[in-house]
């Protein structure tokens, strides 16, 4: 009997890989020939969401932008594997279809543009069925840590030649690490230094991330857009924060990074009782956005002035209300730079993380414009300085420098730019 979570996880991943491989083989044998028979609809764009009850990140916000800006004869359809998300999108006035289903696979076969922000979009035969369509990778975060092709190359180097060859054949069959038509980035500098190493694509478009539009105020939302923006948002937490904000309370958002080895330094290094006492003493309110793996394990809400945000919820509508961000290695801080507010980097396991989990594209100290805290005492000291100085942390100039490198645009028009860039390339 297997009791450890890592072993259960390995078995689950093996079964997933086998299922994906079998699906891909069947799709190439029986579905791919259909791409030669069916003409693609130039007015059909599909957006594939991530697995589970999730409607968030760039897939959500590109879908909303495309829905808002689409011409009357265009169809923008979101594909999801969760019934609650599909129903919520339809009730809000958008178009959504369950995936996989006969209907969704037919849409993949007919679409001219297919967009996704995760690496597993290829599943259920979507890669062979989308042959001839324009594949757009919007991705879900500017890379501080190594991702995608760089991680794949590292894996190939340490494998025996025969195993590496089999792995490459498997990935080609699945459509993992494909050559995209378009990959979206946040700046040309970021493209040159990081994105170009992560993805194989015909073109990079440095238009910014659609999800960041909501940080700076969505451009003139209509009724449908406003309703879609609320889907998968923790509205209860949002209301609580708005109330606290209206009373003059400073809001902090804490977003720790998930570790690949399932390690959880949050439990070892973060003292929730002390953080709560600090919040009460200094009229602060902390929102914790934890990984789903940590959901409900710490009874966060029993501590005064602490609140756990829904782990799978879309946190971006909350971020403009926050006065400062606490994180470690999450790329969310690149997005938070657009708000020009204090960021504290609480990274007690930095050396271990770099050695055991992920290498980085940039020097951590140079790319993180904020105080670095190696223990809880240092974190509380830095938070006290921010509170005492009305939100200022002394890093405004450095934030501006990093923001200029990572963002070519500081506005709420990324979704608009991406939609029109893709529309201009239609055949």
Write a structural description.
43% of the residues lie in helices and 15% in strands. It is an alpha/beta fold and 427 residues long. The chain folds into 2 domains: 5-229 and 411-423, Rossmann fold; 234-406, Rossmann fold (3-Layer(aba) Sandwich). The strands form 3 sheets. The chain has a 7-stranded parallel sheet, with helices on both faces. A 6-stranded parallel sheet has the order 12-11-10-13-14-15. It has a two-stranded parallel ribbon with strand order 6-8. Helix 2 (57-69) packs across helix 18 (414-423). The longest helix is centred in the first third of the chain and has 27 residues, at 5-31. It is globular, with a radius of gyration of 22 Å.
Describe the SSE topology:
Layout: H1 5-31, E1 41-48, H2 57-69, E2 75-80, H3 83-92, E3 95-98, H4 102-110, E4 111-116, H5 126-129, E5 134-137, H6 148-157, H7 161-174, E6 179-180, E7 182-184, H8 188-198, E8 200-201, E9 204-205, H9 223-230, H10 235-246, E10 250-255, H11 265-269, H12 272-281, E11 284-288, E12 306-308, E13 324-327, H13 332-336, E14 342-346, H14 350-356, H15 364-367, E15 371-373, H16 376-388, H17 396-406, H18 414-423
Parallel strand pairs: 1-2, 1-4, 2-3, 4-5, 5-7, 6-8, 7-9, 10-11, 10-13, 11-12, 13-14, 14-15
């Amino acid at each position: 009997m297997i009791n450890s979570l890592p072993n259960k996880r390995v078995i689950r991943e093996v079964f997933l890989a086998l299922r994906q491989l079998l699906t891909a083989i069947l799709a190439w044998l029986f579905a791919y020939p259909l791409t030669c028979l069916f003409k693609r609809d130039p007015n059909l764009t599909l957006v594939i969401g991530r697995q589970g009850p999730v409607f968030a990140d760039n897939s959500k916000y590109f879908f909303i932008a495309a829905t808002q800006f689409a011409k009357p004869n265009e169809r923008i359809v979101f594909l999801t594997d969760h019934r609650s998300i599909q129903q919520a999108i339809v009730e809000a006035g958008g178009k959504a279809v369950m995936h996989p289903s006969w209907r969704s696979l037919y849409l993949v076969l007919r679409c001219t543009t297919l967009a996704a922000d995760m690496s597993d979009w290829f599943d259920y035969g979507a890669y062979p069925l989308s042959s001839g369509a324009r594949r757009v990778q919007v991705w879900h975060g500017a890379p501080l840590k190594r991702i995608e092709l760089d991680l794949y190359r590292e894996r190939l180097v340490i494998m025996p030649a025969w195993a590496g060859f089999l792995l490459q054949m498997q990935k080609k069959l699945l459509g993992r690490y494909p050559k995209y038509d378009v990959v979206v980035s946040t700046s040309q500098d970021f493209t040159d230094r990081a994105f170009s190493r992560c993805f194989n694509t015909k073109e990079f478009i440095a238009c910014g991330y659609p999800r960041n539009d909501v940080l700076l105020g969505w451009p003139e939302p209509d009724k449908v857009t406003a309703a879609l923006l609320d889907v998968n948002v923790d509205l209860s937490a949002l209301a609580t924060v708005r109330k606290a904000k209206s009373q003059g309370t400073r809001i902090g958002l804490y977003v720790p990074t998930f570790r690949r080895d399932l390690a959880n330094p949050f439990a070892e290094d973060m003292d929730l009782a002390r953080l709560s006492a600090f919040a009460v003493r200094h009229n602060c309110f902390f929102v914790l956005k934890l990984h789903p793996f940590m959901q409900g394990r710490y009874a966060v809400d029993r501590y005064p002035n602490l609140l756990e945000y829904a782990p799978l919820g879309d946190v971006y509508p909350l971020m403009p209300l926050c006065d400062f961000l606490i994180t470690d290695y999450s790329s969310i801080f690149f997005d938070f730079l657009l708000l020009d507010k204090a960021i504290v980097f609480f990274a007690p396991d930095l050396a271990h993380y770099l050695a055991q989990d992920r290498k980085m594209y940039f020097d951590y100290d140079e790319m993180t414009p904020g105080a670095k805290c190696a223990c809880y005492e240092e974190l509380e000291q830095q938070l006290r300085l921010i509170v005492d100085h009305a939100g200022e942390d002394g890093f405004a100039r450095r934030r501006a420098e990093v923001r200029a490198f990572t963002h070519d645009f500081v506005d709420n028009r990324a979704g608009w730019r991406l939609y029109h860039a893709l529309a201009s390339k239609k055949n």
